[in-house]
């Protein structure tokens, strides 16, 4: 059988009798690129959610900034109330980090 990419003769794998690309790394890379291109052609809308997610994150970032600005007092109270817990957590975290 001839390789679809380099046109050299090769023996297909006994597990893949319909194999079209030889086992050379260059041909396998070309095969992977071709498969990805074909898949994206068949599934053009698959990655559209990424743009929606980005827009949502931007709006959420603005919302969070406004919320923090309007709730400064509550955040300060929360921070003071939980300072010992956070301090202990960070102490333990750094202990584990240094031991790695």
Descriptive account of the structure:
- There is one protein chain.
- With 100 residues, the chain is mostly helical.
- It is built from 3 helices and no strands.
**Proportion of beta-strand residues:** under 5%
Shape summary:
elongated
Look at the structure and give the mean pLDDT. 94
What's the Cα radius of gyration? 28 Å
**SS-based structural class?**
mainly alpha
The biggest beta sheet is recorded as:
none
Distance between the termini: 53 Å
* Secondary structure: number of strands: 0
Q: Give, in order, the helices and strands.
A: HHH
How many helices? The count is 3
| Low-confidence sequence ranges | none
Helix content: 55-70%
Could you write a compact summary of the structure shown?
The protein is mainly α. The chain is built from 3 helices and no strands.
